[in-house]
Amino acid sequence: MRAVEGLDVVSCRVPGKINLDLSVGPLREDGFHEVSTVYHAVGIYDQVTVQPANGWSVHVTGPYAAGVPTDDTNLALVAAKTLARRRPRGGPMVPLRIDIDKQIPVAGGMAGGSADAAACLIACREVWGMDHVENDLLEQIGAGLGSDIPFLMHGGTAIGSGRGERITPVLARGELHWVLWAGEGLGLSTPQVYAECDRLRAERAAKVPTPAPSEELMTALRRMDADAVAQHLKNDLQEAAISLQPLLSEVLAAGLELGARGGLVSGSGPTVAFLVASQAEAIDLSVGLAANGPTGDILRATGPVPGAQVVQNRVPPPSPPPPTVKAPRSGPIGRVPS
Q1: Residues with catalytic roles
Q2: Among residues 20, 129, 267, 293, which is most buried (max CB within 10 A)?
Q3: Which tens digits make up the pLDDT trace of 173-198?
């Protein structure tokens, strides 16, 4: 589709996330669960590029492209259209072509769809010249579309409360090293995993406490002590994810046996995140999982990393002015001899 001449092409890079601590409270009246989570952005990135066009479209490339919709259900497209409708002041918004380079596993508990929506909102603000739009509005729009979107605009490490959309940064210095296992064809939908969590709790008549972040984990993160962080990794959805995909139990056991300091299912899964103490340990664990663990994609990453950031903002050069012809000094001024 032909781009509209003379307007920006903007690319925004955005990380995936894992949940170091995910505490799930009781079901609320609005159909959501109250949660407390510790988000952690890791260096596996999607890149979203937007440019004005003659009509709306989404195009996806990359190793996980097959799992991403390109119709009106695509979350990045929904985010762009929502911003266009809710812009604070006038002026028509031209349609966009949205290109997504998909490197974050799809339906893996790493918020890949939410990441693309976060990147798209920031890129749209640039390409539409909406400098007056504050981050608060983008986060408000994002929170209405997905609980993880506000965090992915910020990145780093942060506590998420409410549905996960209320963000409080966590003081964390240094970095953690991760090995991620992503199973092919094991996609678990978030509603499905939450429903299974509710079913298992009801089966046991379990009392569900008010969710709160772990003070021990907060202390470990301030020091970025891998062993201390590993001891306090927690995910209330892990049992439900394993109930629906028992292979995840084998993956966790394999990684821990091969030397990981700790491991957990990320979010609603099925990606499994293993914490190690160094890049060398990450390489060793990656090789061991590839050789001896259940079949899956093995990825290495560090965290925390920043949230969605513009990496390219290109304005096509203006058309050159028409050439001028200077009259010869001997001729009349303003006339060109034929």
Answers
A1: 17, 148
A2: 20
A3: 899 999 999 987 776 888 899 999 99
